[in-house]
Amino acid sequence: MGGKVVTISSGKGGVGKTTATANLGISLASLGKKVVVIDADIGLRNLDVIMGLENRIVYDLVDIVEGRSKLRQAMIKHKKFDRLFLIPAAQTRDKMAVSPDDMVKLTDELREDFDYVLIDSPAGIERGFRNALEPADEVLIVTNPEVSSVRDADRIIGLIEAADKGPGRLIINRLKTDLVKKGEMLSSEDVYDILGLTIIGIIPEDELVLSASNSGIPVTLNTQSKAGLAFNNVARRVAGEDVPFMKLDDSPGIFQRLVGLLNGR
Amino acid sequence: MHEELIAIKGFSDGLLISLSPTESWQSVTDQLASRIDEKADFFAGANITVELGERPVPKYELSSLKALLERRGLTLSLVRSASNTTQKSAESLDVPTDNGAAPEAAEPMARETAPVNSEETGTAGVLFRRTLRSGRTIHSEGHVIVFGDVNPGAKVIALGDVVVWGKLRGYVHAGAGGDATAIVCALDMSPSQLRIAECVFRSPPGRRKKIMPEVALVRGDEIVVETRA
User: Fold this and answer.
1) Coil, helix or strand for B158?
2) DSSP secondary structure string for all residues of B62-77
3) Which domains are present in chain B?
4) Are B217 and B224 in contact (CB under 8 A)?
5) Long-range contacts: B64-71, Cβ < 8 Å, 24+?
6) Contacts of B151 in chain A (CB under 8 A)
């Protein structure tokens, strides 16, 4: 049986798609899976930076599609995990250089050798998003607990449903429990109430994520980080494990309600 | 009331406008313009498919129709015609065409459009069987039933009533043609904006304590929201 293509998408930019993709890739690899991550954000690549592989790029996605490079040549092996590979985006071209059909062809080839093909979708609902969506077996939607981000997530969930790739599962990123308590931030229940999708992960706000991204060592590698642990749990759920949701707060009220919500529906 | 030379139908991607293939082009387009101007709210921003039947429409006529729509903020997205002349005109204007293979359309349809309120036969409606998400709009000449939620950022615009079997949080305009007897029902009535005919209603800010099915309707000049036992 071939591998699974998982697209990570959001609609709005800056909510943490690329960070989520990098961390899921690393977590899945550390679970022993063979993983390739594809940066589909052509023209604005940065998955390579977050994964700390920027200086190893020779060929990119567009080179593969246009036949200048063999698939194997363009794949960059991760420094720590020899089961994890990156296909970087081209920096100098734009999204029109790759078509949805190209992506399907490419991922069909990768499925044979890998357990998971993760695609980091660009923001927006245009060609780049179509490229990332077309080959997907499953879509994970990243949203922040914030009205405009949820609105954009809703928009792309509609497009995902229309393309019969739905409904997808939700990653709520950068949740601040103290703000939720004060009623200044949407809670995960509020987000669920609007979007109605299964939640596959709730990632707490964590300063370690920023320093990790800057240093090219994704936060899942840091055992001190709550966000890193949460990403690890998402990866295990993607891989089919039944992992209970982490306690993000000392107050039993919120935690109990959350568990009730996730079990109840 | 003048004779109906045009018929308008809502469908998933916008509005289908069928123009009588026999009447003079001038009177057909005049009537179209006045129909749009009468119900500007209903048409607002819609994608238009125009169905022209057998009528051969030269390029200058089609281009004036396109301009007529564009002046009113509408996009001519498809021309459906059985005539080669018309199809060529459309191609030269870069408007997509199809040959109207759906035969139910053409001429008989023009007379089919019943007035919105005929109670005996029931009236035309749209049933949408999932959540209407942000960025999506339903236009309908008749009633609209959404079996799911209407999310913030989504729009429903109907000449008739709107029934939401779910949470209503988006924008709804019922009776968009001016029918103040239109109603809006929802299991959870918290629209970002609700209009019936000319009246506007905004949900009071803050969370509602109790969620229950409610009906919005016009009494006097105001929209009121009521529960029905």
Assistant:
1) strand
2) HHHHHHHHHHTT-EEE
3) 6-112 (3.30.70.260), 125-226 (2.160.20.70)
4) yes
5) B64/B29, B65/B29, B65/B32, B66/B93, B66/B95, B68/B29, B68/B32, B68/B33, B69/B36
6) 154, 194
Q: What is the mean pLDDT of the segment spanning A64-82?
A: 93
Nearest to A19 by CA among A246, A200, A198, A171: A171
Which chain A residues in 190-209 lie under 8 Å from chain B, judged by CB atoms? 193-194, 196
Give A226-265 pLDDT, tens digit per residue. Answer: 999 999 999 999 999 999 988 776 444 455 555 556 665 4
Q: Report whether B126 contacts B142 (CB < 8 A).
A: yes
Tell me the average pLDDT of chain B.
Answer: 83
Contacts of residue A151 in chain B, CB cutoff 8 Å?
A: 134, 152-153
Q: What is the CATH number of the domain that holds A63?
A: 3.40.50.300
Residues of A in contact with B134 (CB under 8 A): 151-152, 154-155, 158
**Which of A155, A170, A189 to mutate against chain B (most B CBs within 10 Å)?**
A155
pLDDT for res B203: 73
pLDDT digits (tens, 9 = 90+) for B75-86: 888 888 888 888
A154:B152 CB<8 A: yes
Q: Which residues of B touch A154 (CB under 8 A)?
A: 133-135, 151-153
- A157 contact residues in B (CB cutoff 8 A): 133
Q: Phi, psi at residue B190, to the nearest 5°?
A: -135, 60
Beta-strand ranges (E) seen in B66-116 are: 75-81, 97-98
Q: Which domain holds residue A199?
A: 4-264
Gyration radius of chain A's alpha carbons:
18
Handedness of CA A60, A64, A69, A73 (dihedral sign): positive
Statement: residue B105 has pLDDT above 60? no
Across all residues in chain A, what is the average pLDDT?
Answer: 90
Interface test with A, best of B129, B132, B151 (most A CBs within 10 A): B151
Check whether B155 has a pLDDT greater than 50.
yes
Residue of B172, B82, B157, B84 lying closest to B126 (CA atoms): B157
Q: Which residue of A has its CA nearest to B132?
A: A158
Q: How many domains does chain A have?
A: 1
